[in-house]
Amino acid sequence: MPRKSVRQLWKDKVSGKPVASSANIPVSLARKKYVGTILGIDPSLRGTGLAVVEFASGGRQILLRSETLKQKPKISMPQCLGNICERVLQILDTYEIDVVALEQTIYVQNFQTAQILGAARGAAIAAAAMRGKDVFEYPPLRVKQAVVGHGRASKEQVAKTIRTLLGHGAMLQLDESDAAAVAMTHAFTKAD
Fold first, then answer.
1. Per residue of the chain (192 residues), what is the pLDDT tens digit?
2. Active site residue 175
3. 192 marked ligand binding residue
4. What is the DSSP secondary structure assignment for residue 23, as one 8-state letter?
5. Catalytic annotation present for 103
6. pTM of the prediction?
7. Are 42 and 103 in contact (CB under 8 A)?
């Protein structure tokens, strides 16, 4: 019997058709849960979201830290990039991070905006490279699919889902919840 896609399985579930559970899958084929600590980054020149999420062996996710690196308009672009690199290095030196996961730049019509976002990503990637960390990048559509279940979810829907998944009482700022979502995307979709 051919394997069904996630989309087809979801369609079957919503329409009330029986869907095979993972209990029917032989243990050797069941996907292992990710165990480790991931630094998720939602890069932006003026508001980079950072989240350190630990994935415990029992399948539990624990938010160890989240923050938004806010930078005022009066700070020059080179200084902002230096601040992003420095903050990522500080986090990598504080926590035992296994990998870094970043959100890829989305399509933007303005060339200058794309350059600025690319530079912010570069500053974060450079910091990870300086500490020898593997970097994985995920497009926003994939992040939303992995965390919320559909790629057109709003930032608010992502934030609510992250709050539920982490069992966190308060809503995270949007940049922070996006960073946590990128970390979770890596944990949920990483190839074994």
1. 567 766 666 666 555 677 665 545 444 445 578 999 999 999 999 999 999 999 998 878 999 999 999 999 999 999 999 999 999 999 999 999 999 999 987 766 788 888 898 999 999 999 999 999 999 999 999 999 999 988 889 999 999 999 999 887 788 999 999 999 999 999 998 744
2. yes
3. no
4. G
5. yes
6. 0.82
7. yes
